Structures are given as C-alpha cells and as structure tokens.
C-alpha cells in the first residue's frame, strides 16, 4: 500500500491511501478514513460485453471516521520511500484538474505537528499506522488526538 500525493487540482487533502474497502485522506488537520463495502448485483448482459457488471449495478455502503492529529497549524510533509510507479488521473473534461506522473510513497513524515513532535504515517501489515516521534526537549502531553 502506498500514499500518493494529491494536493492541488482543487482538493483539500494532501495525500490519499487506498486499500480494499478503505480510503485514507491525509488532510492538513488529520486523517479521514472512509470505510466502504462494495457489492455487485448480477446484470443480464450479452456475451459480447467484457464484464457482467455496469456502474449502475454497484452498491456501496459507507462509514466515515475522522482522526485529528495535526491540530493548530498546517504541517510540513516529508514524503519518504519513493516508489518507482506513478499514477495518472484523467477524469472528466476539465484539463486543469487532470494529473499525470503522480508519485507514490511508502510513508510520509509530518514535521513539527507540535513543537518538536513529528508524526510518521505508513502501512504495516496492510493497515495504515501513525507514530509520534517526540524530540528530547518536547512534551508528549502536547499531543492531542481527536476521534
């Protein structure tokens, strides 16, 4: 799993990570998790069509959880572990919102989310994690996590 840079193109999120059934939007104030279940209704299609499903046949149910881990200011992101793959997004007809060569990263460190405290966002065993790296002269009690 990878985090990929999506800032710009009219989006408020900085990075997006996707796994089966979950989108994690890394924003300036924290992480928004969108959990979903996708089911298909079997459609009656001819053999000439490559798939038996159409977009109208997809049912999705959603649950959202938001975690605020970067309160108070916009963080400075330092993406790490650049992957050799990239994404291209050509959605819709508005070329100003298209994106090509979007890099993928294995982790992102959010610097100075609190004085002397960084947050490292990464995947471990298919799950997104975050660790707080507390500097020697920093106060761990400054960390505020909002659920």
Question: Can you lay out the helices and strands and say which pair or pack?
Answer:
Layout: E1 3-5, E2 15-19, E3 22-26, E4 30-40, E5 58-68, E6 76-89, E7 99-114, E8 117-124, E9 127-134
Antiparallel strand pairs: 1-2, 1-7, 2-3, 3-4, 4-5, 6-7, 7-8, 8-9
- Secondary-structure-based class equals mainly beta
Termini gap: 24 Å
Strand % is over 45%
Mean pLDDT: 73
| Count of helical stretches | 0
- Work out the number of β strands: 9
Report the biggest beta sheet as strand number plus sense, adding barrel if it closes: 9 strands, antiparallel
Oligomer class: single chain
Total discrete domains = 1
Overall form: globular
Question: What pattern of helices and strands is seen along the backbone?
Answer: EEEEEEEEE
Low-confidence stretches: none
Rg measurement, Å: 19 Å
Level of helix content?
Answer: under 10%
Structural notes for this entry:
With 147 residues, this protein is mostly beta strands. The chain has one domain. Helices cover 0% and strands 55% of the residues. It is built from no helices and nine strands. β8 and β9 (127-134) form a beta hairpin. The protein starts with a strand and ends in a 13-residue tail after the last strand. The model has no long low-confidence stretch (mean pLDDT 73).
